[in-house]
Each structure stands twice: as C-alpha cells, then as structure tokens.
Amino acid sequence: MPQATALIDGNNFYASCEQSLDPALIGRPLVVLSNNDGCIVARSAEARALGIAMGTPYFKARQHLNANNVVVRSSNYALYADMSQRLMSLLEAHCEELEIYSIDEAFGRICRPGNGDLQNWARALRARVRRNLGLPIAIGLGASKGQAKLANRLAKQVPAHAGIFDLGCCNNPDHWLETIAIEDVWGIGRKLARWCRLRGISNARLLRDMPSGELRAKCGVVGLRLQQELRGHACLPLDLAPAPKQETCVSRSFSRPITTVDELRQAISTYVVRAAEKLRKQQQRAASLTIYTRTSPFIPGFYSQAASTRLDLPSNDTAVLLQAALPLVGHIFRPNRQLAKAGVLMQHLQSNDILQTHLMVPMSEEQQQKRDCLMQTIDRINRRYGRGTLQWAGCGLHPSWLMRRGQLSRAATTRLSDLPVVKA
C-alpha cells in the first residue's frame, strides 16, 4: 500500500495560541512581539491584511497598530511550548510515524487507503485539533517531504483548498507547481534562487524538470536530492530520533543596561538555573561551561567577553553548575560598561546513562541518587506550580533587568494561578 508524507503545521502559531486562550481575540488583528517587546514576530491573518510586516520594530509600528485597534501581546513562551507539546501528542495518535520539525511543524507518514484519497483523514485531523486545542492547522500531502512542503504552502495560499492539499492525488500537479516561485521552494536560498532565475528556472516545476547534471554541478548531491524529492521520490527519511544535543545555550537581552557585578551575577545565576533544567529534561550532563556578556553593538565602545571552565565531574546539578559559573563572573565584568546581554553555554554534553567518575572528586552512588532526586523534585514542583515557585537565592527577587514583557497574557495551561475562575 503506497505511503504518503504529510507536513502539518499551525497557522500563525503564536497568534493562534493567544486566541485559543482568549476567544475574544478571534477575528481581531493581533501581533506578538519578540524578547523585550522589540519586534513583531507573529501576526494573525487580520494583521497581515493590514500590511503589518514581520520583523517591524514595535516602536516604529506602534502608531499604526493603535490606529487600527491591533491587539499586541508579548511573547508567552511557556504557553507556546505547552501548546506545541499538546499538538504533537495529538498528531502522534493520528500518524504512523512522526518527526517533530519545529515548534509548530511536523512531518507524518500515513498509508493511503485503497482509493488513495486522504481528504477524509485530513479533514478529521483538522477538526480534532481545532476542537481539542483551538488551533487552526494546514496539512500538505505528497509522496516526499519536498512535495509535502509545497502542498502545505498551497493549502494555505488557496482558500478553496480549506487548509488541505494533496499534491500526490490531484488532477494536474504541474499547474500547481508552476504557481510556486523558485524562492519559495524548500531548500532554495537567495543565492541559489538567483542562479536558477538567471537560467530561466523561475518555479518549482521548472526546477523539477531541469537537467540533473547542471543542478549537480552547482549543488552536488544536495541539489539532486531536492530535485528527486520534487519528482516524488522520498530521499529524506523521517528523523524519528533526533541526535543528542551537542551544546545547550541560554541567553537573554536585558530590559535595561546593567552596570554592577551583583546584577550580572544574578543574571548568570538565572541562566545557569534554566540551562540546568534543560539538561535534566534532555537527560544529559555538561562537562564544561562558558559564560559571556556584551554591550549593545549599536553604541560606541562595543565590549564583549567570555570565560570558560571545565567540571571535574560532568553534572546537571544546579548547585554544582552555579558553583562553577559564578567565580567566572569577575573575569567578564568591567566597571562602567553598560551590559546589554549575557548568556550561558553548556558544553561537552554527555548522556545520563554513563557517568565517568573522578578519583579526586569522590561521590558515592547513594549521594548521586540523592542529588538527582532533589533536582527532580524541584523540577516537578516548578512544572506544576509555575517556574520560579522554588528559586535559587542567587537569582534575586524580582530583579529589574528581567526581560520586558509589558503585554504578557496568562499562562493558564502551565500555571495554576493563571487559571480563569468562573462564578456561577
């Protein structure tokens, strides 16, 4: 029985998550801002219709947004991550295999029925996601990942398709491929698109049908693989088990410049705590770490500095990582520098399955289990009652340099205190 590849993604995902928690926003123009309420990073369909461009600085667009009664929201990463996890869990139940491609995209593998038509399956999945999560999705179907990407684009662009398009089961696929510009083909960057246009290759169909030798001379096997994908030959398998991370980074820009070593120490502590949580979630330990800070690149006298250390024993224990990171703060801090950003990089990551002990750092298996149990308990409490319920003293209490999010919505799916209360 032939198999199909589906690309399923959330429409305007950040904006849709905001609308799912606040139905009053449905049908209204809505934009979501980046860190520190800097730029527009997501727009609802109504906001797109007003000509609001992606990446526009908020201070430049503020007057236009106010004039058109556009709702503005700060990035609510806890909400988006939780909704993404719920979406992927639901998709797993409806696909034979699933590759999570990004926070709002996934490739799925489905066997076609006897008549080859997957429209009923796709319509049922869209309705299920909308009913259970309040999120609109688009589904593109094809014989390969490349075709599924193009079909997903057609599902969104053509209203008559109602969010579903099957490139492997349509009457005239060449017609639809001709409507997709070469710049919009998955895997085609700006330079390669220019190279194609200079040779008269202006759309996806022409790329599919161009001489393979010419494409290989320019792009090698990567170009040939892309062309075969467009022809319906699945060359890119689903990545069902992503490779372990090699590094884990946590970095943020400050809401205001910081100039004291105490504030920088608080920031580094906050980022180390978050990085340790990530390591434990990834089932990994770090053997070394780097901390860094810098001033704004847009003011004179740019300053940037980093410092590293290696751990005697790889760890994901927050206390151990803080003990290693905080002495480095003095190496990167400089007085009278208006620091705009800092970060922590966990390096030389190892699996939790194997721990190479150190002769000079004695730690019994019982001690290690107690520390692991303590970290798990802290993580479990913070997941249930909201991040920061249990906090490390070095992070400070309500520091003024924290990321600015003046238009933040509730995190009702991850924090009990944000649950709406209904009085009847």
Structure explained in plain terms:
This protein is α+β, with helices and mostly antiparallel strands. It has a domain of 148 residues: Dna Ligase, domain 1. 38% of the residues lie in helices and 21% in strands. It has 15 helices and 12 strands. A 5-stranded mixed β-sheet has the order 5-6-1-7-8. The chain has a 4-stranded antiparallel β-sheet with strand order 9-12-10-11. Strands 3-2-4 form a 3-stranded mixed β-sheet. Helix 10 crosses helix 11 and helix 12 packs antiparallel against helix 13. The mean pLDDT is 90.
**Which residues form runs of ≥5 with pLDDT under 50?**
none
Spatial strand order of the main sheet: 5-6-1-7-8
Write down the CATH class of the domain at 248-395.
Alpha Beta
Principal-axis shape:
globular
What characterizes the major β-sheet?
A: 5 strands, mixed
Structural class: alpha+beta
- Tell me the radius of gyration: 25 Å
The N- to C-terminal Cα distance equals: 54 Å
What is the N-to-C succession of helices and strands? Answer: EHEEHHEHEEHEHEHHHHHEHEEHHEH
Number of strands: 12
Q: Classify the fold: give the CATH topology of the domain at 248-395.
A: Dna Ligase, domain 1
CATH architecture of the domain at 248-395: 2-Layer Sandwich
SS strand fraction: 15-25%
CATH superfamily of the domain at 248-395: DNA polymerase, Y-family, little finger domain
Mean pLDDT: 90
Number of helices: 15
Specify the helix fraction band.
Answer: 25-40%
